[in-house]
Design a protein that fits this description.
The structure holds two protein chains of two kinds. Chain A is mainly α. Chain A contains 13 helices and two strands. Chain A starts with a helix and ends with a helix. Chain B has a single domain (13-31, 65-271), classed as MetI-like (MetI-like fold). In chain B, helix 2 crosses helix 12 and helix 10 (194-217) runs antiparallel to helix 12. The chains are: A mainly alpha, B mainly alpha.
């Protein structure tokens, strides 16, 4: 248990270091952008009124030396002040907090689904290696790799919402339906199906390929021969011996790809009008609302770090040896 | 002799040959876009909302009467151009940093790897969106943004290669004969670590094309360059009435990226024969 706590603590230190680096990067992005930093913070040049820009200039001490400005900026972020969106006339943090739950629901569901289905399909492909099931899984994975996820989303909604009318094409809930309790949950779940499948598909393919390759590799190792010689059943060998060892690289990659998953939600939420942070990013891009965009960058980075810690814990659970050695 | 070996190994992978054929077709389409579809792809060519197979618009027209087929041909240029240049830029950053880290080791290695880790943690698509939005969309900013978010895997790869090659005898011999560090890096180690780097780079072109299409889908494409992602993004709101506007550019992306991935796998089989055999 001590090893676990130690691992967790060292991860936290690293996470804080990465966060500080990202905040500093945000600061320099605002200053490197063409034009006056105050204008950049206020949004598209000319859109903000003079008084607001002057206020920003004073607030961030834009006439002070750069390192002093950096100090002010980091201090503000540390207090949870991500700035003010002139476009929406609200603090950035309030806007983000409102959108965060929808994105968390979407990305977490997609992540769990992709991992579970990907490992299952990869195992199936490895067990049936060389048969049609294996080839089918390989081809689907190859296609999923090559297809832009926003286009998959559009095609799925074209088929399942527009042509067949089975699932809602966009939004978070049926507007004006006034469902409560279970009916409301079912309504949200129906809206969630297409975005989650779209987002999960690419990662499912990638985990399936990885699980397959990793299982085929582990299968040839000596301890599997021992297990066979002991007379263990095929299913026990696959689940307890092969899979348990083969899944480790999958978890590693899943942790690394968590960042892409969060990035992918920008596209998915745009396609399905899912009211989360990704959709907000699209709106912020359209309105050139840089304060919101930089806030999203910070918050999604935090999400990635949390995802990484989550996969580290998962890794520790699957392979107890890891805790001590790291 | 070596060349024919390479081709035999490459051709043994059927998918890779198919990929090469598709890729050649796309390169030809891009090269002859202005001959096949003269005129500006942004100009109105026919009536708006024409379905596929109509007069003057074999793949249909969009909501402003622009020819979809012409847009796809001209878009191929932009996709390939951005895919290649941003990969080249990512190679320059990644291989340089990876080579320095692997060759020098110690503190330099530590610092560079921390830096690489930072960029691997950051959600790369979000960073690309932020970069292009803040520095205003143009071919240059898009290429730069894609390169900035894609170099870390190349750096890790180059570092691993340099780490293992540094201790080999031919490198030790070069050190003993007093060659300079830059000469050892560029003339001894780099040529010997090229094959895995080439394979990764070929796959990265595919990822870069996907990234570019995603950026232009969100409206962050170069406003003067017709691109596949832009076509899909613009047609998104009318998909109910006009499926062809989003379907055909999407197919173009899938084909291109698939072809590049297949070629990449073939290159892997041909350049890393040991790996390829142990995989099957």
């Amino acid at each position: 248990m001590l090893g676990f706590a130690h691992l967790f603590a060292s991860r936290l230190v690293k996470a804080v270091a990465i966060l500080i680096a990202i905040v500093v990067m945000n600061f320099f992005l605002v200053h490197a952008a063409p034009g006056d930093p105050a204008m950049v913070m206020a949004g598209e040049a000319g859109a903000a009124d003079e008084r607001f820009v002057a206020q920003l200039r004073e607030q961030f001490g834009l006439d002070r030396p750069l390192y002093e400005q950096l100090g002010t900026y980091v201090g503000k972020i540390a207090q949870g002040d991500l700035g003010f969106s002139y476009r929406q006339q609200r603090p950035v943090w309030d806007i983000l907090a409102e959108r965060l739950p929808a994105t968390l629901v979407l990305t977490l569901t997609a992540f769990v689904l992709a991992l579970a289905l990907g490992v299952a399909l990869g195992t199936l492909a490895a067990v049936t290696v060389g048969t049609w099931a294996d080839s089918a899984i390989t081809v689907v994975a190859l296609l999923a790799y090559a297809t832009p996820i926003y286009w998959i989303g559009l095609m799925l909604s074209l088929l399942f919402s527009i042509q067949l009318g089975w699932l809602p094409a966009f939004g978070y809930e049926t507007i004006g339906a006034g469902y409560t309790g279970l009916a409301h949950a079912a309504d949200v779940a129906a809206h969630l199906i297409l975005p989650v499948i779209t987002l999960a598909l690419f990662y499912m393919a990638s985990y399936a390929r990885l699980t397959r390759a990793s299982m085929l590799e582990v299968r040839g190792l000596d301890f599997i021969k021992t297990a066979k010689a002991k007379g263990l059943s095929q299913s026990r060998i696959v689940t307890r011996h092969v899979l348990r060892n083969a899944i480790l690289p999958v978890i590693t990659v899943a942790g690394i790809q968590a960042g892409q998953l969060v990035g992918g939600s920008i596209l998915i939420e745009t396609v399905f009008a899912w009211p989360g942070i990704g959709r907000l990013a699209f709106e912020a891009v359209l309105q050139r609302d840089y304060q919101v965009l930089l806030g999203i960058f910070l918050v999604t980075s935090i999400m990635v770090i949390l995802f990484n810690i989550l996969t580290d814990i998962l890794y520790g659970l699957v392979d107890p040896r890891i805790q001590v050695s790291q | 002799m070596m060349k024919s070996d390479f081709w035999r190994a490459f051709a043994r992978n059927k998918g890779a040959v198919l990929g090469l054929v598709i890729l050649t077709a796309i390169v030809v389409l891009a090269a002859f876009a202005s001959v096949l579809f003269p005129g500006d792809p942004w100009d109105m060519a026919t009536a708006p909302f024409q379905p596929p197979l109509s007069e003057g618009a074999p793949l249909g027209s969009d909501m402003l009467g622009r020819d979809i087929a012409s847009g796809i041909a001209h878009g191929a240029r932009v996709s390939l151009l951005i895919g290649l240049t941003s990969t080249a830029a990512a190679l320059a950053i990644g291989v340089t940093l990876g080579a320095l880290a692997g060759f020098h080791g110690g503190r330099i290695d530590d610092a560079i790897m921390r830096f690489t880790e930072l960029f691997q943690t950051i959600p790369n698509f979000v960073l690309a969106v932020v970069l292009v939005a803040i520095f205003t969309p143009s071919l240059t900013t898009i290429v730069a943004a894609i390169a900035v978010v894609s170099w870390p895997p190349l750096a890790r790869l180059a570092r691993a290669e340099f780490l293992s090659l540094r201790t080999r005898e031919f490198v030790q011999a070069a050190i003993t004969t007093g060659q300079s560090n830059s000469s050892i890096i560029l003339r001894q180690i780099l040529p010997n670590s090229l094959s895995p780097i080439i394979v990764s780079a070929s796959l990265m072109v595919a990822t870069a094309i996907l990234l570019e299409s995603s950026l232009s889908f969100l409206g962050l494409g170069d406003p003067n360059a017709m691109s596949w992602g832009y076509m899909i993004g613009a047609a998104r709101t009318v998909i109910r009435q006009a499926w062809w506007m989003s379907v055909f550019p999407g197919l173009a992306i899938v084909l291109t990226v698939l072809a590049l991935n297949l070629v990449g796998e073939g290159l892997n089989d041909a350049l890393n024969p040991k790996l390829a055999r142990s995989r099957g």
